[in-house]
Amino acid sequence: MKNFALILMSLLMMCCTKDDKAKAATVQEAGKTLVVYYSYTNNCHEIVTSLTSQIQADVMRIEPADKTQKYEANNYAIGTALLNAIKANPNDAASYPAIDPVSITDLSQYENIIIVTPLWWSQMAAIMQTYLFNYGAQMSGKHVALIVSSYSSSISDVVADSKRLVKNVTWMGDALWINNSNHRNRASLIENWLPTLNFAEKQTTMDKMYITIEGQTQTVTLVDNQATKTLVEKLQQTPVTVTLNSSGGFEIWGTLGFSLPTNNEQINAQPGDVILYNGSNICIFYGTNSWSYTRLGKIDGLSENQLRTFLKARESNISVTLSLNNTTGISSVRSNTESGVYYSLNGQRVENPTHGIYIKNGKKVIL
What we know:
- This protein has 8 helices and 20 strands.
- The protein is an alpha+beta fold and about 375 residues long.
- An 8-stranded antiparallel β-barrel has the order 8-9-15-13-14-11-10-16.
- Strand 1, helix 2 and strand 2 form a beta-alpha-beta unit.
- It starts with a helix and ends with a strand.
């Protein structure tokens, strides 16, 4: 009897392990995902917490500019007025309530977007409608899914609102409705819903670039837009070396020698950002600045002080090489008896390595 019990337990563990591996494989094969949500009563926040415990995704919360509003006040008069204003002029930006600036303004890096929104009196919450009115066009060509939280009302009109605001997308599957009676079971509802979705596959295009300055190389994670695609095509032919100069106390910049497609928007550039300016100039930031740019990518893993050192902040005539492989030509080194010692890509021993690419025990490593 004990042997039978042990066998049964082993079989159950094997099944669970296979299921877990299958789920992990599904998530790994999916493209990059963004979960965007608005939550007034915190129900949607709890839904997003349950969702992101089951999938890997970036998360962005939408907030109203006016946080003093009580939408349910005076028998829901305020919330109803906001919805009526949108219904009266759905194509007029002035009809939508103001929201705070969002943390992610460029959606090109995402293949899948999951919208989580509350229902207000049978319609999509006005705050989420504002976000989709402003950014829905960037979702064109992507895979989109919808989760709606309500007390008891049907979500059919919310689905209609989403399709009005977000066009030319692939809807991954039916919207998930989580209401007052099943909110406590949200984790299992999400678990059963996710396998029904048609996630976009993981991108197979190049998403990394190298920047080399005076023998030191750092990786850049590229965004997915036409500018980076064209740049990658250039770099597949040959690395590009440019001369950049410090400017404004926040960047090094200069001409690329060729033009790239632009998708300009007002960007609050941050340390590490790699930006296209006026179509033919590259800017690499060690400080901050707000301007109309096209985003290219971001240097991986360096602090602001480390960026200043790497980018030779405030210096002139800085030789910078862009490539799809490190440009030192070193692919490996012969290991000596000093196991664990780090070397730079130009062969110099490094006593206290920080972030970057190094040689250790004959192999490249990234710190």
